[in-house]
Amino acid sequence: MHSMDLSPNKSWTLFLDRDGVINERLIDDYVKSPDEFRFLEGVPAAIASLSNIFGRIVIVTNQQGIGKRLMRLDDLTIVHDLMISEIENVGGRIDKIYHCPHLESDHCSCRKPETGMALLAQKDFPEIDFNKSVIVGDGIHDMEFGKVLQMYTMFISQNTINNSLIDLQFSSLKAFAEMLDVRC
């Protein structure tokens, strides 16, 4: 567990989960098209604020809807292009999006909680230091992903969860950004 002297700067990397952190999670379904994608309240502005603090911001998202043949990679690309455009329109940025299209049953090394997407990000951006990284996610698998890599783990939930994998908990990405904006 990290001491919570969290003071990120431009040498730090922010890893974001997507569904439930950036956009509304669809229960027992997948965001398959732009009309199904809805930002959670305040997220584009929060990412703009976080863009001023972190040197890199990447998204790591499990997208087994592709593996289930409920959507195509092209569908995911359209959703992500729209998301990035709206974030950029308010002054934010996403440096790269990594997704795992495989089924949970495939036991793929890129599917969280496995660390494959983080290792790909570090290959693309060699300056990434996992000890100077934060993962923000809404699932315990996101926290496991972060802990294996010795990242700071930020859990997004409306309900308080006691779990040793969680360093800090927030009600939203907006609340996390507001806390950092005051501290940094």
Structure characteristics:
184 residues, alpha/beta, Rossmann fold, six-stranded parallel β-sheet, 32% helix, globular
Describe this structure in words.
The structure is a single chain. The chain has 184 residues and is an alpha/beta fold. Helices cover 32% and strands 16% of the residues. A six-stranded parallel sheet has the order 3-2-1-4-5-6. β4 (133-137), α5 (140-148) and β5 (152-156) form a beta-alpha-beta unit.
Order of strands, main sheet, comes to: 3-2-1-4-5-6
Tally the beta strands: 6
Helix content bin: 25-40%
Q: What is the CA-CA span between the terminal residues?
A: 21 Å
Total tally of structural domains:
1
Portion in strands = 15-25%
CATH class, please? Alpha Beta
Outline the secondary-structure elements.
Layout: E1 13-16, H1 43-51, E2 56-62, H2 64-67, H3 73-89, E3 96-100, H4 116-124, E4 133-137, H5 140-148, E5 152-156, E6 168-170, H6 173-183
Parallel strand pairs: 1-2, 1-4, 2-3, 4-5, 5-6
Helix pairs in contact: 1-6
Short précis:
Helix content is 32%, strand content 16%. It has 184 residues and is an alpha/beta fold.
